[in-house]
Amino acid sequence: MLNFVLCDDNINVLNRLEKMLESIFISKKFNAQIVLSTTYPDELINYIRNNTVNVVILDIDLKSKVSGLDLANMIRKKDKNIYIIFTTGHLEYGLMAYKYKTFDYLPKPITKERLEETLIRLFEDVSGDTSDFVRLDNNKTIIKQDSIQYIQKDGMKVIFHTDTRNYETYSSFKKILPQLSQQFVQCHKSYIVNTDKITDVNTTNSTILLNNNKDVKCLIGPKYKNKFMEVFNYGNFSNNLDGFNNTK
């Protein structure tokens, strides 16, 4: 049984979050319960000091002298294994939040779909069944591999483009590639593509179309072209293609 604690300065947000969580617990048959829901930072800290808590969903801007980041720092001093999920309407806090080994960061307003995605990953992580997942460098964020469309290198950052959102981390393809299953192929110095998501390949302009979305594309680099086409043509990855322009 996982014990969840919630803290937000807005009681209406708390009530809505409770309802969404309870609905997800029931529909997904998650063994979990909400043991505390509070608008008071002191109450949260006192509870964690004296009770078993597994997951904290925490607003960053609590409209008080103590911020969610301050609380996260206190929580980490007591227990390094508690899952911390931040919520906030201030996107600029995102990178700051991950300093505290954050499992996820939920922008407000929180949707049930987005919350459910996070909980699914969390329970998979708890169970240790992460063979179908990729761990980011902080080891507290895991991404389901079949949700990844492509992975992009952008300077020092690596961006995972998934079906629902993007994840950013400071890493390298050298560290990430060994974690990936065989449907992932590097097609460019800056791109790794999930071949299961490919719906068209145009070798004339060296582009890959994903999920029939003309705005979601990967590039094929000259250095990787021959290997990519060999894997793609003979790796049984073309079953989902609506069209395939293999123009020389």
Core attributes:
248 residues, alpha/beta, Rossmann fold, OB fold (Dihydrolipoamide Acetyltransferase, E2P), 5-stranded antiparallel beta sheet, 30% helix
Explained architecture:
It is a single chain. By secondary structure, this protein is an alpha/beta fold. It folds into two domains: 2-129, 3-Layer(aba) Sandwich (Rossmann fold), CATH 3.40.50; 142-234, LytTr DNA-binding domain (OB fold (Dihydrolipoamide Acetyltransferase, E2P), Beta Barrel). The chain is 30% helix and 32% strand. It has helices at residues 11-27, 41-50, 68-78, 94-97, 112-127, 173-176, 222-234; strands at residues 2-7, 32-38, 55-59, 83-88, 102-107, 133-135, 142-144, 148-154, 157-162, 166-170, 184-188, 191-194, 198-202, 207-210, 213-219. The strands form four sheets. It has a five-stranded parallel beta sheet, sandwiched between helices. Strand 14 and strand 15 (213-219) form a beta hairpin. Helix 2 runs parallel beside helix 3. The longest helix is centred in the N-terminal third of the chain and has 17 residues, at 11-27.
